[in-house]
Each structure stands twice: as structure tokens, then as C-alpha cells.
Specification:
With 69 residues, the chain is mostly helical. It is 72% helix and 0% strand. The protein has two helices and no strands. The longest helix is centred in the C-terminal third of the chain and has 30 residues, at 38-67. It is flat, with a radius of gyration of 21 Å. The relative contact order is 0.05.
Length: 69
């Protein structure tokens, strides 16, 4: 099989203008949120971190149960 025939479809080549614009809008929205409501933004980050930590601990507990340690 030739190297060009390995993928039967074209793979996307990098980000277009739309992705860059959406990324810039997202970053701008986050900056505006932090500037206008810093305490709310800090609370959301704390809650998100707590959720992520709890999820990681849950996965670790599950794996310890499966492995048997």
C-alpha cells in the first residue's frame, strides 16, 4: 500500500481564521469576566479545581479496587 493511500480522507491542516477568531473571543470573554467579577471567577475556579480533584481521587480509588491494592 502506498504511503498516500493510508488515509482514505483528507486530514484538516491547521486552524483556520474561524478557529482563531473564536479563540480570541473566548479569551476576551474570560478576561472581561475576571475584570468585572473577580470574586465570582475565583470561586468558579476553586469549585472547578475541587471537582477535578474529586474526580481524580474517584478514578484512583476505582483503579485501586480493580487492581486489588
Amino acid at each position: 500500500m502506498a504511503k498516500n493511500q493510508m488515509m482514505p480522507f483528507q486530514m484538516p491542516k491547521g486552524g483556520g481564521t474561524g478557529k482563531k477568531v473564536l479563540g480570541l473571543l473566548f479569551v476576551a470573554a474570560v478576561v472581561i469576566l475576571v475584570v468585572k467579577h473577580p470574586t465570582d471567577a475565583a470561586q468558579w475556579v476553586k469549585e472547578g479545581w475541587a471537582t477535578a480533584t474529586a474526580a481524580a481521587e474517584g478514578v484512583a480509588t476505582f483503579l485501586q479496587g480493580v487492581i486489588g491494592q
